[in-house]
Amino acid sequence: MPDATNEDISNVEKGIFEAGAISKMLDEKLSLLDIAKKVTGDKNIKIIEDCKIPVYKCDCSKGKMENALMSIGKKELKDIIEEDGKAELVCHFCNKKYQFNKEELENILKQIK
User: Fold this and answer.
1) What is the mean pLDDT of each run of 10 residues along the chain (113 residues)?
2) DSSP class of residue 47?
3) What pLDDT does residue 88 have?
4) Contact present, 46 and 38 (Cβ < 8 Å)
């Protein structure tokens, strides 16, 4: 928006704040046009390219969850192993659940320096 005025920028910032999370709009199956209208507050949006379909894709993985378990430290991981013998982590973006059994947790513990 190189030609945008301060008022234009303020309006877009306000629209972004009021529109909420993009992931929620994608979950609601809003089109790119609807999202643009909601974010900008402009009902006269011109479509330049109409072949894009918004898709929300999370890049979580069991490996990333293993790294999260490593980051809590040896003591906390030992406590989980002794108390529960297993762990379940849930991705905060897509809600996918990752299960770790006692053997997997012990292997992760060995990797912590």
Assistant:
1) 77 78 81 81 76 77 96 94 96 92 96 86
2) P
3) 97
4) no
Nearest CA-CA partner of 33 in 49, 17, 55, 9:
49
- The whole-number pLDDT of residue 6 equals 87
Tokens of 63: 């490996």
For residues 31 and 54, is the Cβ–Cβ distance under 8 A? yes
Alpha-carbon distance of 13 to 107, in angstroms, equals 47
Phi/psi at 13 (nearest 5 deg)?
A: -60, -45
Please, are residues 112 and 104 in contact by the beta-carbon 8 Å criterion? no
Spatial distance between the Cα atoms of 55 and 26, rounded to a whole number of angstroms: 7
53: which residues sit within 8 A by CB, 6+ positions away? 32
Q: Which segments within 1-113 are labelled E, that is strand?
A: 86-90, 97-101
Residue 67 neighbours by CB distance under 10 Å: 12
Q: Is residue 26 classed as helix, strand or coil in its secondary structure?
A: helix
CA distance 21 to 27: 10
